[in-house]
Structures are given as C-alpha cells and as structure tokens.
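Hi P.,

Sorry for the delay on this. The queue was packed all week, but I finally got your sequence through. Input first:
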Amino acid sequence: MSEYFDTMVRVRYAETDNMGVVYYANYFIYFEIGRVEYMRNLGIVYRQMELEDDSFIAVVESKCRYRRPARYDDPLRIRTRVVSVRRRTITFDYEILHNETGELLAAGQTVHVVCDSSGRPKALPEKYRTILRVPGEEESSTPVES
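Then the structure:
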C-alpha cells in the first residue's frame, strides 16, 4: 500500500447540523479534498487529466465508517492513500482524524472507474498508472471491470 498523504481542513459552520456536528455527507467532501490534494502532491492535476487525456475518475462506490463526531471549528487531518490501481479502476482509502488529539473520527474508501468525457469506461493512461501504482501490487491479468 502507498503511504498516506495528509491534508488539513477546519470544520466550517455550514458543514454542521443544528447540534454543531459535521453532517455525515460532508465526510465524502473531505474525502474528495484529500484525494485531489493527494494527486496534486504526486503531480497529477485533475483538470489537466480531464483536458489533456480525456480521463475522468468517476466514483462508483463509496463507504464511510463514523467513529466519533467532528464538530464546528475542529481541525481535521484528512489522510489519503491509494490501495489499488487496475486497468480501469483506482481505489483510495481515507482516515479523518482530529488533528489536535489524533483521535480517528471516520474511515472510508472510494472506488473510481476511469471514463472518457462521454462516460464510457477506458483504461487509465500509463503515465498515471505509473505514478499511482501501489508497491507490490500486480496488474490483474483478468479483466474485472467492464
């Protein structure tokens, strides 16, 4: 598995419910923030990937396990890593921690299919596979994706 990359955010009031607790769906936005910054850190800019290579990574599966609530103004550390890169799919893992206490607040995963601009699945260009490749992971010889 690749190493985690950390991104920092602070919970904004708009992300909370009436009790000051982060609304559950916002964790998926935090995952996206972490994923975009993880890729940017590796030299992959989503917008360039879309424009230059007609490659979009669509979320096809997502999950989140909530452990403790994050609250308004909490400093959060979003930890992101790639756990699998296949011909047409990429899988990311996430941890959301309270940055001051280190407490794990949530953990999740997203699976993405690489598509062209018309939404048809396509192979992830080799230049991205090389950058995202997980050490020790072998490319699947049998296609699992359609």
